[in-house]
Specification:
Elements (H helix, E strand, L loop, with lengths): L2 H38 L3 E4 L2 E13 L1 H7 L8 E11 L1
Antiparallel strand pairs: 1-2, 2-3
């Protein structure tokens, strides 16, 4: 391995560490924001020039295990709702 590539790999590792630390801080900040939104009972807030949203998103998916077990029942019989939060700052 060339010396230049070794340096690139080392720099990459350093930036990945910075990325991990930044992601940890982002998670902490998001938790503070969403906790405050939950305490206020809102899923949208205008803060300064930002609109902050924390909305519930529901998705239906096919429960393939049940479909295979019961051998070709109607598609809708096997839909199972799934919800998650969608967070955005615009």
């Amino acid at each position: 391995m060339s010396k230049d590539l070794t340096q690139v790999v080392r720099e990459y590792k350093e930036w990945k560490q910075i990325e991990n630390e930044a992601n940890d801080r982002i998670k902490e900040l998001k938790a503070i924001i969403t906790s405050e939104m939950d305490a206020r009972g809102v899923d949208k807030m205008n803060i300064d020039v930002f609109t902050v949203k924390n909305t519930t998103v529901t998705t239906n998916y096919l429960n393939e295990a049940a479909l295979k077990k019961d051998h070709e029942q109607l598609y809708r019989d096997y839909l199972k709702p799934s919800s998650h939060k969608r967070f955005s700052v615009t």
